[in-house]
Amino acid sequence: MMWGMFNIDNLSRKYIYPVKYEEYVDKYAEEYNIDKFFIYAIIKTESNFIEDATSGAGARGLMQLMEDAFDWVKYRMADERDISFDKMYQAEYNIQYGTYLIMLLYEEYGDERTALAAYHAGRTTVNSWLKDERYSKDGKILLVIPSNTTEHYVDKVMKAYSSYNNLYNNVKSA
């Protein structure tokens, strides 16, 4: 009885926390040395795996990239391919650019929560928060996120990340 309940629970959680676009997530997570479940958590939170999602602010695709973030990533990647912001509705390009952006932010801040805050609120905003001792003691890691929407976003991604890890990393054979 308990085993059956676990399987139903496990199946429902896998429905809630799906693994989609594996080919691209696996490829770019490995290439940019980011945990694939972190990328799945971001996609789940940003677009719920809707490839052509568009936010009210104009963010596009699975990982909800804004045009200025796209331009910055394209420049940092030195990507000379003919890829415009319009291609951010295509899963492969969106996942590649979004994963690269997360890699850059993690390299810059060295902390998942601070990198996510920058992904959501922007580097300029996060850098200003880091200069304020009410939010950061060392100027590198945010201990307090002063924006409720950004704090909610970070918490939501981290909860999804934990769920992905619990569902897919801790699978035990019967």
Looking at this protein, list some descriptive labels.
single chain, 174 residues, mainly alpha, Lysozyme, 8 helices, 61% helix, globular, disordered N terminus
Task: Produce a short descriptive summary.
Helices cover 61% and strands 0% of the residues. The chain is mostly helical.
Oligomer: single chain
- Any guess at the CATH architecture? Orthogonal Bundle
Number of strands: 0
Q: Helical region count?
A: 8
Task: List the helices and strands in order.
Answer: HHHHHHHH
Please give the share of residues in helix: 55-70%
CATH class: Mainly Alpha
Query: Could you tell me the mean pLDDT?
Result: 92
> What proportion strand?
under 5%
Total count of domains: 1
Estimated radius of gyration: 17 Å
Residue runs with pLDDT of under 50 for 5 or more positions: 1-5
Distance between the termini: 14 Å
Apparent shape: globular
Instruction: Give the CATH topology.
Output: Lysozyme
